């Protein structure tokens, strides 16, 4: 459980007050699905079913901590969870950890979380994930660190996609987002290089990308009021 405790603490430190983080172990069989959730993984392999169930368990723990009652979290047609009315959330997992973040809509319009193994991104994937400017930036970094930094770029792009999707339903490729890491604090900016539906070109989303002993974890909160990160995100401003 040590890696889960570390993962939870790092994630909590990156999110606004009022957002709850919960973790679960996908390698155990303790998590049970509600009948309304079973269809989403009816044809899945056992490993995927365990991860799905642990993710729902973590999400229910976070929801309970916010004071909501236990309820099913069925998958929608786009495979995202159907969150209880009044809540926003996001779930992520890898082979050893499941992570859920949940917050009330008066705090956040949308949330994104992505967890990845703290291991170099395979070399053949790097050109598929990274834009030419990002590849140039990587080439200036020490060679032993490039694969890990590419993993962080991937994680940052994934989490931005997950955060904006509940608001826009927009699908786009990795090349649309240009990631810039800030020097301190694990913060990053993701710039839309082209317009995506209601999101103008040049729009930036700010997030956090941290490493733990076992994981890379990225978070994005699209704030619902002034003072919360990304409260000026164009789609949020019209809601």
Automatic annotation (TrEMBL):
UniProt binding sites for CoA: 48, 56, 92-93, 114, 158, 162
Cofactor(s) named in the record: Mg(2+)
Gene3D superfamilies linked: 4'-phosphopantetheinyl transferase domain (3.90.470.20)
Keyword Ribonucleoprotein: no
Ranges where the 4'-phosphopantetheinyl transferase domain occurs: 111-192
The UniProt record lists the keyword Magnesium: yes
UniProt pathway: Siderophore biosynthesis; enterobactin biosynthesis
Catalysed conversion reaction: apo-[aryl-carrier protein] + CoA = holo-[aryl-carrier protein] + adenosine 3',5'-bisphosphate + H(+); apo-[peptidyl-carrier protein] + CoA = holo-[peptidyl-carrier protein] + adenosine 3',5'-bisphosphate + H(+)
Subunit relationships: EntB, EntD, EntE, and EntF form a multienzyme complex called enterobactin synthase.
Similarity comment: family membership: Belongs to the P-Pant transferase superfamily. EntD family.
Protein name as it appears in the record: Enterobactin synthase component D
Organism of origin: Shimia marina
